User: What shape does this take?
Amino acid sequence: MDKEQKYRSLLPQAVSLIGASKDLVADMANLSALLHQEMGWWWTGFYRAVGNELVLGPFQGPVACTRIGFGKGVCGSAWERGETVIVPDVEAFPGHIACSTESRSEIVVPVRLCGEIRAVLDIDSRELACFDGTDRLYLERICTELACRINPELRAYVESEILPRYDSFDKGHRRDHAETVIAQSLQLSTWYDVQPDLVYTAAACHDIGLCEDRATHHIVSARLIREDTNLQKWFNAKQIALIADAAEDHRASSGHEPRTIYGKLIAEADRQILPETVIRRTIQYGLSHYPGLDREGHWARTLEHLHEKYAEGGYLRLWIPQSPNAARLEELRRLIRDEARLRTLFETFYQEENDQEPHI
Ligand code: SME
Assistant: This one.
């Protein structure tokens, strides 16, 4: 089994451990045991943020230092920077705190809630360069789940009654899409003072209206949420209204801002601003809507649209600045400024689109 496969089988187990005990430290204890056992690392555990120090929490492995100052060592650096730190060689990391001479590489992942880092997950390996983007991805997912601690009964309902509805939708809106939006919106939600169960449910339900109609599916999703009496077990009328509104607002366009932070979280989690995809779609739109234009005409239209919508001061609005979409939008803006590079991409995509079936 490669690392990715191990994480894939471990993730549902990790999620199922979270929340049932209704105690954060108990969840940390079981998570460190599961991760340590399954992944075979040297040291796996949590430090909790208490005042201006990290204090040793539940862990597996040899004894470790009990307090780490803000900004100190790898753990304190991850806390200070507010992001995951991967250290391929601990000896090359200035200020690394050596709890054990056996440790050669390390990853530290913050556990954030309401915009504050409450703890870090620290993992040490006896191998050099043991950790990479795959570890970051899955460990960040696990830390988000730990921070959000979704009600296990609600999760069981969503997994058995809501998510299977996506199986009959088109390829872009199957269950994996709902799961991606759930994961992404929960991750974004850790920056805000919001109720994670609401974010989870709105994300899980945001596209269920596709069972009736594509064009108005957001409105149908909202209606189905309001009509779902099961949800009343976990939410009051006000909360259900927030969930329904968030689902209804998930297709927010620049002229229609989501009404609440819940809607903004779902709308941002539901889109991916991928620079090359944006450019290709712009060309595709031009080809199908302005068939009379020649190549130069399409180039001019593409430029105009990209500038109007995506350049600095353009009408596109990011709902959640901490989203990975912010960095992607920056990349797209660099591309828009570099007209020579943009023209090269335009030529490639324009050619590819014209080589395909005619646009009607
Ligand atoms: N190496 C960590 C200290 C904790 S131990 O590895 C368990 C650091 O530099 O923060």
User: Anything to note?
Assistant: The chain is about 50% helix and 10% strand. The chain has three domains: 3-148, 152-269, 275-355.
